Amino acid sequence: MTRFDLATDLDCSVEQAWRLLTDPAVKNQWSRGLTTARDAGGDGRMDRAGAVREVLVDLPTRPRVQEVVTCADEPTRFAYRIFKASPLLREYSCAIDIQPTDDGCAVHYTVDVDFVPTVGPFVEPPLRRSIEKSLKGLSEQSRRLAADPEPLPYRRAPRRRPGGVAALRPQIQRYLGHQQIVAEELAEAADPKYWFARMCALTTEELLRRIDEGRYTEPEWMMRLMAVLHRRHVSNLHAYRSGGGVSAGWREAWAVCDENDNPRSFRHVATGIIAASRVHMEEDMPRALAEAYAAVADDGRDYREFRADYLDVAPVYAVAVDRLCAEIPAPFVPRMLRASGRVLPEMRDAMTRLFYDVETDRVRAFDKGFALACEAGDITAP
Questions:
Q1: Cα 367 from chain centroid (whole Å)
Q2: Residues 201 and 319 placed together within one structural domain of the fold
Q3: Could you report how far apart the first and last alpha carbons of the chain are, in Å?
Q4: Residue 77 located in a structural domain
Q5: Residue 155: what pLDDT?
Q6: Which domain, by its residues, includes 290?
């Protein structure tokens, strides 16, 4: 991981600087990269947590990336991270701090970037130079605003920090124990549905680890989402095994798992997990997102504020897949998949997307959840 610490002074108020930095149309007047607004964040605004922007990066290859706003403490702190880019970019996050000064304000950029080892030495220097040139353009643009003494009409949105993390943490730990027991029972019965159940338990383990590390901005919301997904998963599985009512999608997915006549065949295991994952994203995830949001809607929160944390779950699935593959006897895992995971995980991720592009379905699920929340009256449709 490489860090760029960059700063510049502006001849304008912090309120004016906020708009220069957060409004895509205004930003394009000084930035070397071209920013396009894709989806609004909280309050239906682009300068709120959860907003999604697409950027044409100022590098020789002109790559396109997608960013999500992770923090918007107007008018002093704005942060975002890239969640969709070339596999060669492992991580990119930027925090912008704005502090008033006697002559205007000071802007401090903190960029953390991580490329694959063979690429970093060639890309990081021109990337830093591009940011430095952009900040120079920002400073010049601020001088054009100095003649306007009126601050731009932006307000600080009140934000309530939920306090139920301590109460929810033991509950999710119990749910994890339940998931592990269900997976063990399926394993003892040589039931092919074990593999998806095990995948769910591994995902929960990794999510809890990241919550404990403070990775997520909204840990209470994340645990509420995990709780809803757990209840849907367990009740769905129980209903299918006991002959109860399940949706047509889940009945078909579980049937695909049951068709596995070789519990050690990677192809059969993968087919069952993909079938169940598709229905999970198409049916369970949107409903769980809407239900988890309903629990905090009365606090004045906006559904889209939680988008950044939701998108940051992506690495969890990769870790869970790695751990699951490690439990399958090595001879049954394709050599190319084993080698790619050891040599270049990004290659492994690209290969798995050929079979199922879970990230596309995850983004679609978030939008469906928003529509369900609007239908329920928890949020006003845009």
A1: 13
A2: yes
A3: 39
A4: yes
A5: 47
A6: 165-375
Per the structure block, which two tokens stand in for 94?
């930027």
Task: Answer whether residue 197 is part of any domain.
Answer: yes
Residue entry with tokens 């731009």 = 152
Q: Are residues 69 and 200 both part of a single domain?
A: no
Sheet-wide strand order for 2-10: 2-10, 104-115, 89-101, 77-84, 64-73, 52-56, 34-39
3-state class of 159 per DSSP?
coil
Domain identity same for 171 and 281: yes
Query: Residue 323: which of 207, 203, 211, 234 has the closest Cα?
Result: 203
72: left (phi over 0), alpha (psi -120 to 50) or beta: beta
Q: How far apart are CA 209 and CA 203, in angstroms?
A: 10
**Nearest by Cα to 273 from 192, 210, 357, 161:** 192
Q: Phi-psi region for residue 278, left (φ > 0), alpha (ψ -120 to 50) or beta?
A: alpha
What residues have CB less than 8 Å from 190, skipping those under 6 apart?
A: 263
* Bond prior to 219 in cis (omega within 30° of 0): no
* DSSP, residue by residue, 18-70: HHHHH-HHHHTTT-SSEEEEEE--GGG-TTSTT-EEEEE-SSTT--EEEEEEE
Question: Are residues 105 and 194 located together in one domain of the fold?
Answer: no
In a domain, 381, yes or no: no
- Same domain, yes or no, for 294 and 343? yes
- pLDDT tens string 316-359: 988 898 888 888 776 666 665 655 555 555 555 655 655 678 88
CATH of the domain at 30: 3.30.530.20
pLDDT band at residue 292 using 50, 70 and 90 as cut-offs: very high
For residue 151, being part of any structural domain is answered with: no
Structure tokens belonging to residue 160: 């309530």
With contact defined as beta carbons under 8 Å apart, do 374 and 380 qualify? Answer: yes
Nearest to residue 236, comparing CAs of 223, 224, 221, 248?
Answer: 248
Model pLDDT for residues 155-176, shown as the tens digit of each residue: 444 455 546 788 899 999 999 9
Residues 174 and 323 in one domain: yes
